[in-house]
Structures are given as structure tokens and as C-alpha cells.
Amino acid sequence: MKNIVFIASLCLLIGCDPPKDQESGCSGETGAALFEEHCAACHGEAGEGIDSLGDITEAVATLGATALMDQILEGGNGMQPIALCETDAEILVEWIQKEGL
Q1: With contact defined as beta carbons under 8 Å apart, do 33 and 18 qualify?
Q2: Looking at the whole model, is its pTM more than 0.90?
Q3: Looking at domain 18-99, which of 1.10.10.10, 3.40.1280.10, 2.60.40.1920, 1.10.760.10 is its CATH number?
Q4: Tens digits of per-residue pLDDT, 37-57?
């Protein structure tokens, strides 16, 4: 019991990645963290794309949440699908739309 309390206290002090939900495979990460991990390498920090590839600013402005979800989970238009659970994909889409990328 002391070990569990110590480990939990240590995690609170230094920070730990949120554990994945073993049943759903969801990460529990924020939209910003999901974007950084899965999107920013191609789409840039502000969605402007890297070397004129992957600019998502227009798509985000014109597509609805359902179309963005489909693009993320199924890929297309030169983009590979991203292996996210539906909940993480929803969090990511909500964040992208809120940020107005």
C-alpha cells in the first residue's frame, strides 16, 4: 500500500502521461496534445502545412465536424488515417475547430 501511495505522489509531483483506457484504447489526452502528436509534423503548429503540404486551414473553415472526423479516422486526399479511438478523434476535432486552424 505504501508503494502505491508513493508512486501516486511521485506522479503528481513530476507529472505522468494519462493512462490509456484499456477497453477503448483512448488516450485521455487533450486536443492540443493529440494535434502535436498526430498532426503537427505534416500540418504545422497552426495548420498551415509544412513546405506547402498539408495546409488544413481552409478545410477546417469549410468542413463540418463529421467530415473532419471522417478525414482523421479514414484518411483520404493524400492523408493516411490516424489510429485514434472515436472519443480522442472527437476531442481533436473540437480542439481544431475551436482553435480555428
Answers
A1: no
A2: no
A3: 1.10.760.10
A4: 999 999 999 999 988 778 898
